[in-house]
Design brief:
Layout: H1 3-10, E1 24-29, E2 36-44, E3 47-56, H2 59-72, H3 77-80, H4 85-91, H5 101-119, E4 131-135, H6 140-151, E5 155-162, H7 178-190, E6 195-199, H8 201-217, H9 224-243, E7 248-250, E8 256-259, E9 264-267, H10 285-288, E10 291-292, H11 300-309, H12 331-339, E11 346-349, E12 355-359, E13 382-387, E14 392-396, H13 398-401, E15 402-413, E16 422-424, E17 432-436, E18 442-456, E19 463-468, E20 471-478
Parallel strand pairs: 4-5, 4-7, 5-6, 7-10, 11-14
Antiparallel strand pairs: 1-2, 2-3, 8-9, 9-20, 11-12, 13-14, 15-18, 15-20, 16-17, 16-19, 17-18, 19-20
Helix pairs in contact: 1-2, 2-5, 4-5, 6-11, 8-9
Length: 480
């Protein structure tokens, strides 16, 4: 460690003072470790015009915070977004391993201040001909998307969404937890990419998690990922891309954007096993013009091979199979803690209404479910219906589960309903031939879908994705 540099920053008071009213402030540390770093940024036309800071605790934290303030004052927002623990440690002359946390606290305080700026309406950079914002979750798909954009010559900026913080959630398995943010930032910096965090937790709780909980309470099976992509995540990142002067938002989704003469539509990616176009179905076509999917033509093994070839630590990182806010915990426990849905014994009914067993609460069951019914019969039984008011679960055979007409509510048609020739009724299901009972475009309160072949397990609350020639032309929520 350079004692001269350390002592200089330890006694540096040049950035001590009161931040301006429109400053963005971030702090890291606190009671748990006894050290606190606080940084405030005043941003003017994408430049950090003034920095104020203060620190509490050990000398290393005070010195690291002062060094950080000197580094970012006068820098662009995007240059500051490239700074991490390593750069702060180097600026202060190298800290001992025992004191290295001081550099991390200063870097974390900076990035929390930048996160405040990212969540504001403030323009953070001027326009650039080929700058792209890449959504980085800390996983292999988004990392390779960023890598491919950088390799084709784009100026890449990474962003990670903070959507959920819950001590009961395994943050290491969630794509939008505080732990995921730190992992994604480290990954972006290893690729020499500036990184920003966008905190949407409040909106996510209100518009996604609350709807998830209320859906189960009402006896349906909601699809929160479609609502999150269509109403919360993508729109917020496209807005940030605009304020960063980026031409596009890139994501690691496996999906395709096609043109049909009337504009942009979503379609399936090359890898049918990984296709995620269903989960993006609620995106309006006008937003697709600002999106890019670098993995469109790749398979998952090819993506992992690219990551491995470039030495990315996430090359073999396992995929999360849970909803981000459920990672590491059961759905039942989550609904109990966040929705007050406790165990409530009720009757299992056959199609005639005769009680043939008991269940532990209607919210534990979804239409089409076979396992966990606790009822013996000559042939397998499936959930046909749940009644939230009566707290009953009705079961029947697979023949009883077949449907030939599906009703959807809150339907959106981007193209004439007469063009619809198929529908996807679940994420992993194959398209089913279908026609609608309406023509025209726009929003409609109710639509009937007539299936060309029967489908087992149409589940209220799930999304029906409407297709024409393989392209997504509309969607709606399946009714009971």
């Amino acid at each position: 460690m350079s004692k001269e540099l350390f002592d200089a920053y330890l006694h540096d008071r040049s950035h001590v003072g009161s931040p301006g009213e429109d400053a963005f402030t971030g702090a890291a540390g606190g009671a748990a470790c006894g050290d606190l770093s606080r940084v405030s940024l005043e941003i003017d036309e994408g430049t950090i015009a003034r920095v104020t800071c203060d620190a509490e605790g050990c000398g290393a934290t005070r010195a690291a915070t002062a060094a950080l303030a000197e580094m970012v004052e006068g820098a662009s927002v995007l240059d500051a977004a490239q700074l991490g623990t390593e750069e702060v440690d180097e600026a202060i002359g190298g800290l001992t391993p025992a004191k290295r946390h001081a550099a991390q606290l200063a870097a974390d305080a900076l990035h929390r201040a930048l996160a405040q700026a990212a969540a504001s309406p403030r323009r953070l950079a001027g326009p650039s001909r080929d700058r792209v914002l890449v959504a980085m979750s800390g996983g292999v798909d988004s990392a390779v998307a960023a890598l491919l954009e950088r390799e084709r010559g784009a100026e890449v900026v990474g962003v990670t969404l903070k959507l959920w913080a819950d001590p009961q959630t395994d943050g290491a398995k969630a794509c939008c937890s505080p732990e995921a943010v730190l992992g994604a930032r480290s990954l972006a910096h290893s690729l020499e990419i500036p990184h920003l965090t966008l905190d949407l937790e409040q909106e996510f709780r209100q518009r996604v998690v609350a709807e998830f909980v209320s859906g189960y309470a009402a006896g349906s099976t909601p699809n929160p990922c479609i609502a999150c992509n269509g109403e919360v995540r993508i729109a917020a990142m496209v807005d940030l891309a605009e304020r960063l002067g980026a031409t596009h938002l890139c994501t690691g989704h496996y999906a395709r954007i096609v043109e049909d003469g009337d504009g942009s539509l979503l379609s399936a990616a090359s890898d049918s096993n990984k296709d995620q176009s269903y989960m993006l179905a609620a995106l309006p076509p006008r937003m697709l013009e600002r999106l890019r999917f670098p993995l469109t033509e790749l398979t998952k093994p090819e993506v992992r091979e690219i990551a491995s070839r470039h030495g990315l630590a996430v090359a073999r990182k396992p995929e999360s199979q849970d909803l981000c806010f459920l990672a590491g915990q059961g759905k039942g426990d989550f609904l109990r803690r966040h929705g007050g849905l406790h165990e409530r014994e009720g009757a299992v009914l056959d199609r005639s209404g005769r009680a043939i067993g008991r269940h532990r609460g209607h919210h534990h069951y979804t239409v089409g479910q076979r396992r966990g019914l606790g009822v013996s019969a000559e042939e397998p039984l499936y959930v046909l219906e749940t009644d939230a008011t009566a707290n009953t679960v009705t079961v029947g055979t697979r023949r009883d589960l077949q449907a030939e007409v599906v009703r959807i509510r809150d339907a959106v048609l981007h193209r004439d309903g007469a063009t619809v020739d198929a529908v996807r009724l679940r994420y992993r299901s194959q398209p089913v031939p279908a026609t609608l009972d309406v023509t025209g475009t726009g929003r409609l309160p109710k639509i009937n879908i007539r299936l060309g072949e029967s489908f087992a397990g149409v589940s209220p609350g799930q999304t029906a994705v409407l297709l024409a020639g393989g392209a997504i032309v509309g969607h709606g929520t399946i009714c009971a």
